[in-house]
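fold-stage: in
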Amino acid sequence: MPTTKPRILTGDTPTHTGLHLGHYVGSLENRLRLQDEYDCYFLIANVHAFTTLAEKPADIRANTLGIVKDWLAVGLDPQRSTFVLQSEIPAIAELTFLFAMLIPFNKVMRNPTLKTEIESKGLGDTYPFGFPMYAVGQCADILTFRPDLVPVGEDQEAHIEMCRDVALKFNQLYCGVGNRVPAEEHHKQGGVFPIPRAKVGRVGRLVGLDGKNKMSKSLGNAIFLYDSEKDVQKKINKIVTGRATATSPLADDNPLAQYIDVFLPRERAEQIKADYASGKEVMDGHIKAEVGAAINTLLAPMRERRARLEEPPQPGKPGGEEMVLGVIREGIKKANAQAEETLALAKKAMGLEFVNRTLH
């Protein structure tokens, strides 16, 4: 049904390791909170997964189902939000090609997020042409659904800036919007695309367990949403604080310091930090146990819901995978209706409207 709520689009690329705490505090908890206030579209970027796993299509399929299970386990509700499977929305691919004409190649390659991924994944100069192309594809992922906001971690803000540039240029070039019209007025002035804004979560960048890089699936420094209680505590216990004695201060950039702030109640976090700063004797092991328990309390209901989604089918009762496929099918219907509307508007603005097409 039509809605007057402002729209949100965000999503995740499926990988075999699933989602972690950095995803949760950076974006997922934002999505949970915004489901009733916004018209939410959540995209599973399974085509983008082929940029680094093209030789493993079976893995990508399994990982795609895994991402949806993670979302449902976290509490995202397909009755209140639309789950979008990228590979089933042909308008995204068409818009990716059209948008590629609006972005200089050297600008794509200067994207800091893209450069970081090339380095962190050790791709050197062996990555396929499709790898930088996915940066353009992300613009299409977003603009296909014409959102007002895009909840992201701070490391993804560069992608949103590129997306904004594409939308601005398209509206100016094909819709007659003046180059002095403020971004927030583009849609009102006849632009096909609203100019989306990034919405960073309460934690823009959660540091990983190694204390050097952001929490990452590929760097082995993450706590995953499906980790067992024992595994969570073991990972927290391995954090190196670098304190010389039990009365030494705890560095602000240490992972344990950030986790105290993020996962413990505010008053308790402030007390612990004050104890560290004042030279009071503080046993790291006790604090790690407290932080681990808080994380496990957060993850417990997610683990329970995830376990139900792994159950095999029973007589008269569908299994977890069939339920996930049902969620995906329902999302595809709504997403394609919106995507085809956007594509039709874009092609009309570009003089490419010759026939009406209908997806069956």
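fold-stage: in (second)
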Amino acid sequence: MMAQTKYKIGEFSRLGRVTVRTLRHYEKIGLLKPGIVDMWTGYRYYRADQLQKLLSIVQLKQLGFTLAEITELYENDTHYPDIRTLESKIKACEEELQTLKERHAQLESLVAAQKKRMNMEKIYFDSLPSVIVAYNRTILPNYDALGMHLVTVVAPEMARLGCECPEPGYCFTVETAKEYKAENFEIEYCEKVSEARQDSDIVKFKTLPEYPTAICMKVYGPYTGLRESYIELFAEIAKMGYEIADAPRACYVDGIWNQEDPDKWLTIIQVPVRK
């Protein structure tokens, strides 16, 4: 008599593409027990022909049958569902699809409501009063270089000129290039001061006019995300029927000077507008 091919549980697991834990569970509920027990050692093995049963179990699970239903099929020695049972599963699938469609619609509605609420929170109307500013124009490789430029160049010069910056502080940048540049930004940095001082080669002074209406957006995170935020805000401004009246300002509220985590930096884009 030829010896049967037998597999240890790990080998059977690899061949059947199921976990050992799953096989132990199938054994526990009586769905698929090892077919060979060594009379000398007591070790249990799976037979080669049990692979087909395992594959059938996996397929039935993929079709939506529960382990209880699969166990019942094998207890009734049918091993595979009849047409009536399959049709009932098709009906259950159709009902589940309808439920999922309704759930999908509800989720989309919630997402739309959330986006609307978030936009209302981060985009708002404000006015920009007339202010005296000290300003510096320069070319920077990127926004990340702005902090060092302010610390090493602009701040010492403002201190030398005796500038006083009243509370609450107000500083912002304006891009002065006539066209978009991916690098080497032409930047004008402005900071509110109590009064104008004598212009120098580095820092000059001017009075900005009042703008009764500005549409603003709160932007949290590193400055690398500002470009996308500008585009989003400009689209909203156009949608609301406004025209841009002057250069947009990037107003720095929280940054590296008081917040180490870049994700918590807060910049407010302020765009003077008119109807």
